[in-house]
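To close the chapter, one final illustration. This time we ask the reader to focus less on the individual chains and more on the assembly as a whole: which components sit near each other, and how the overall shape emerges from the parts.
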Amino acid sequence: MDSNMDNNMENNRKEKTVVADIDRSIYDFRYSEEDAYKVDEGLTPQIVRQISEEKGDPDWMRDFRLKSLEIYNQTEMVDWGPEIDGLDMDHIVTYVRPNTERMKTDWAEVPEDIKDTFERLGIPKAERESLAGVGAQYDSELVYHNVKDEVAAQGVIYTDLESALHSEHEAMIRDHFMKLVPPTDHKFAALHGAVWSGGSFVYVPPGVSVEIPLQSYFRLNAAGAGQFEHTLIIVDEGAYLHFIEGCSAPKYNVANLHAGCVELYVGKNASLRYSTIENWSKNMYNLNTKRARVEEGGKMEWVSGSFGSHVSYLYPMSVLAGEGARCEFSGVTFAGAGQNLDTGTKVLHAAPNTSSYVNTRSISKGGGISTFRSSVVITEKAKGSKSAVSCESLMVDDISRSDTIPAMDVRTPDADVGHEARIGRISDDTVFYLMSRGLSEEDARALIVSGFADNVGKELPLEYAVEMNNLIRLEMKGSIG
Amino acid sequence: MQKERIINRIPSPTFRWLKLNGTKIRLDIASAGSYTGLELPSSIRESESIGFPEDGAFADLPSGLGRELGDILSVTDAKVPIYETDQELEDPLRLSFHYKGVVSEAYGACLSVGAGGSLVAVCDFTSEEGAAGSAAALTRYRVEAGGSLTLVQICRLSQGMTLLSDVGGVCAEDGTFRLIQLVFGDGEVFLGAALRLLGKRAHLHTDLGYLLSGKGRLDINYVAEHLGKKTSCEINASGVLRDTASKLFRGTIDFRKGCAGAVGKENEEVLLLDEGVRNQTIPVILCAEEDVDGSHGASIGKLPEDLLFYLSSRGIDPAAIYEMMAKARIRAITNRIPDQKARQDLESWLGSGLDPDEGDARMVQV
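The assembled structure is written out below.
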């Protein structure tokens, strides 16, 4: 064999490995829409009533939806952040029920096309190998939900929110639903209140530690549709939970909308880790709202990877309501061509001796725009509180954009607030060093970016860290020249 | 007639509920103001315009408070002096404003430093106890290739007085603009500064120091625009809040496309002494260029515990430590005033001696 042939084979092997690792088709496939039911495009009281009837809402929930619609109509669009002119609510379908009668607890009973979707995304495999329970939402409805017997035996409730609403848990739902994120919070919170559908409900009883994570996966298959799932998690006193959220959609030429809502209640001395790898398609407007309330001695950890969507507004918020409550936020955002991702976090210190730590990375490439936006508010009551915010941004080329907009409001002298930020480029010296060790320039740059995002990668379970690194390699493909 | 305006708008707004995107004020400016003291360097050139010039070198310069505020000068038919030099002037230009009684006036000035020239301008704003009302001081500047301009503004205002100071201008290639602003007392002060680094290697350095007490209020909007290659800026803010004083600092470093090799640094330290104070900070970096190095840092609240421990172990009680550190932060800024007379006056007012030569020595190091 001559040396040219050796080189060709080596190149083929290498290229094949790269392609296999980063095959985007695992997210970008789609099935024809054989929906059982969907409402008309647009947003009217009639459509909201239709959704409510379809779901068999109790009266209070129907009234709540209609009131939220009123608030939506009265609320102005935000006048900061990325443009969302391409989102026309008159052409968004707010409810799409897939072709399955009701949620299943056995994969074998899920319709073939939907089952195949989640098989290709690796959800059943993950459930078998590394999860305590799984929920799978397809368009507007949960199609599968299951929790391991031993976890259920601990008293853990993990079900879809609508089943919980029609069960003995209704009072608990009513006490907590959209209390942390009221419809008056902003226009898309009001929209969510009007047309929400699907999502998960988790309750972890006092003192129970759920050793392996629960996961919900949200898949939007229908073109021009919106997904409005609501996740409500209550971790009671002294309990622990790790919850993982995943989301993806195939790409269409029309705008899709995701306006979900996540409300997390972390009890006294309880601990909750909420991890997200978000990979919506690049026609998606991701206007999601996430908020946690943390009681005395409780701990909230956010781990957030934002890779997809055309436009994102995403700022998970922690309300540190009890003395000694803590939160940590680790985030990475990768904005590629055609993306404008406005992400960050908000922390409200409302009790003494609370602490927060924020550590984020942003990467911009191929004309993408990434913005880190945050707020830390330390109220008069939060004496002895501490906050540290660190954000770093990486510009991969000269056609992209990266902005950093952190805000701090400190209202007590007995506080310690620190902030640091840095923006820069990939060091030529580092690329040169890696190339001298045999890496191509493209691989060297991908490796540097993966390392840059390690603040999130190291916080994720191994399988998800691998997925995140694959996404980075996919985005870095073709970054040279 | 009072007119409601939004001033100090941040270039890139954020969450509305934080109320940081701009400041709404009702402003009553009825007449053209004038300085109460003027000392001119011997060879400086002086001319005059009614309002800011609408064409020529001083037209279309940026503004930190907001360009619409410039119309105050036109409305009041204010005569705006234009001070120009292309020499290295040793003596500073000194302007003083002492407000008393009912105040409702606006003053404007233009400063121009030609190629290779240098100028130090010192503006001192004071008020008598019982003075009340609003005053505006609007400054436009140009620094040509290799020139250097240092603008020092010292504000010592009593409760009831509101001062708006707006600074806007450009630096050409290798030009340097240095801005030193010091704010004391319990009046209301709004500072806006829009500083455009147009030419290659143009440099900006700002030092803001403040010691606010009573119901004192300070509202700041600094914007450093990097347009030229290898431009650099350093924005420092350091201060102390007592009683129920409040401060809002907006600092933006804006790396525009094409400013390859630019470096921007921003640093803020705030010491909070009493219950009732409020500090708001929003340090922003906007970046549309790959080859830049931008950073900002902020430290807000109490003194570091290791520093307190060290000084306490030397027998100093905590109250004295805080007094000492508050004074040290202000002195670090006053030491940078390149005008010995202004520095001595200020130190005398602050009630502590300072070696007058120390400041010059430190200026060399900066």
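Chain A touches chain B at residues 78-80, 346, 373, 375, 377, 380, 393, 395-398, 400-425 (CB under 8 Å). The mean pLDDT of chain A is 86. With these observations in hand, you are ready for the problems at the end of the chapter.
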